[in-house]
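Section 4.2 – Deliverable D4.2 (structural model, holo form)

The reporting period included a commitment to supply a predicted holo structure for the target in complex with magnesium ion. Inputs used:
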Amino acid sequence: MLEDKNPQRTSLSELGEFGLINHITKHIKNQHKCTVRGVGDDAAVLAPSKMQTLITTDLLVEGIHFDLSYMPLKHLGYKSVMVNLSDVYAMNGETKQITVSIAVSNRFSLEAIEELYAGIQLACETYKVDLIGGDTTSSTKGILISVTAIGKAEKDTVVFRDGAKETDLIVVTGDLGAAYLGLQVLEREKQVFQVNPNNQPDLNDYTYLIERQLKPEARRDIPKLLKELKVTPSAMIDISDGLSSELMHICSQSKVGCKIYEDKIPLDPQVISACEEFDLDSTMVALSGGEDYELLFTISIDDYNKMKANPHFTVIGHITEERQGMKLITKANQELELKAQGWNALKE
Ligand code: ADP
Ligand code: MG
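Output (structure tokens):
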């Protein structure tokens, strides 16, 4: 987990917009040669490249996408960058630059914004990206963050959602469902805290779940690994809304069906024990819980041997004809229709 310390409180109105921009951008250093000019001018300048350019944006709004009562600002900064990098990696690309725009109300202090930027900068260092610009403005209520990532991919190996073919294998990276359960644990602790603020939560049994919710890591390693293995997926997407919803995107855009096997879905032991405790079905959590930021992709069956022994990958099923629909084969060997529900459906 990231450390969060900053007892002081300097009001943003003391600094003004330019003071704030100067304060948060003065330490920024660029790591990449292709960043010709970063923060400080009317526009950033990037050197041309032979590769194709990827651009992706996400907007995160307080009260809709995050709750600051259990999301420390440093983690929020880190996660805002991760959600964008994850989209670039899902195209089988690499990110070199991001821009970050924020709108903040005067409820926030300079120290709070410093925490947010500490998380953004940690993400930039760890994932080797340059923060090359953004915009700063005020909001009447709450905080809003928009990150844009600029990435690159080879023309021949950029991967879309619409390339899955019948008989292709369906592969996921890592394990699923932990981030959603982390959120359940944090929400429960928030309610306990509201009833009794002196109650110190014991979160030792949930460290992995909470880390997955508060400090997700985008899979920068996967495009590199795929390149080493000489595998180009036929389709790929990142898992932000839950496995079934992402599968639906691949199937509908590729005009195919799929069959996945319940007993193949990769789950961490903490996911299994927390599901028992919360009386949730672990398959349902993996299918509909969001925010794992793993990658879901399809490969030709001819590539199976290149990846079958790799611990990062789990084959969970295969692509079928479109008219066969999307199916889940349960542990009891029943065939169920897969419904594309995001994590919102689980919440209700
Ligand atoms: P302009 O008036 O041209 O929009 P600004 O005064 O908003 O310029 O920004 C000055 C510089 O600081 C620009 O290079 C801009 O990209 C950068 N910048 C502004 N806000 C942020 C931010 N929140 N994060 C990173 N860079 C920022
Ligand atoms: Mg501006």
